[in-house]
Amino acid sequence: MDFDYRAAELFIAHLRGETDLDAALAHPAYQAVFSHNSLLGSGLDKEDVAKAIRGEKSPYYGIENVRANITQMENLLAVIRSRECGWLNAIKEAQSRLFEPGEYQDILICPIVGYDVGIGHKGHVCLNLNLPYYQKAPEELLYIAIHESFHAVYEKWNALPSLKEIEADPVGAYLMIIQNEGYATWNPLELRRKNQHLGSTDYPVLADYIVIESSESLAEHVRLHDELLPSLSRGDLDLYGFLSMAFGEMRLGYRIGCKMVDLIHAQYGMAAVREGARLDPAEYYRRYSHLLDSIR
Fold first, then answer.
1. Domain range for residue 113?
2. Domain count, the chain
3. For the segment 277-290, what is each residue's pLDDT rounded down to a tens digit?
4. Structure pTM?
């Protein structure tokens, strides 16, 4: 496990006119982004990225005002480099609680330009330097790196489903989201609590931790979760409706899932948490969903 800065450096060099876009997009981090989008989006190509850079409508998102933000991105890279040793140890420590070293040691942490807050896919953790809240609070990049590193390991035994697969089995997909996103969201929780960085309302990702620490908010999320599962079983929601509930502003899979892991840890200990990450998602939910009764 290590940091790899070349994906960001090459992209910024392209923005400065010092290299062509092909050189940047050839980096494996952007290939991981393209693979990720081919499963959960409409697919990406070089022209989509070029359009986004020009400020034109494009499925390559997260790149607004990118030329104006070059200095901010370079400053953020400098911060990451200055904290690399401590951050890398923190990421490894979080992964070691759940996995054996051989399961995560091949992962590369790659700052990039554009796309999502972060993804963990194909052995790469890709983190978008162009996000204002990373530039404002660089430690958030560390927490998301810990989150996404979980995904990069988890997908080794549970492949990321495509939109077609999600549509064909929404219940199974939702239970996987509860496990996968729940663990990923829980993974930096101990460090967040230690540093008293428990989120804000500035961004939905950051709001996860406000909800997780609020019994009133959690109760409302569990209520919506209890409504969502039978709705999925009956086929009441279309794909967009399901995705908006699981991944949208409510982020049910993340918040319900994180609280489940937190409750497993409190009641059964770390050994059960480690085992739970490897269970089949349906078996994981069957075994531990009763813990949500304490919130209902």
1. 2-154
2. 2
3. 999 999 999 999 99
4. 0.95
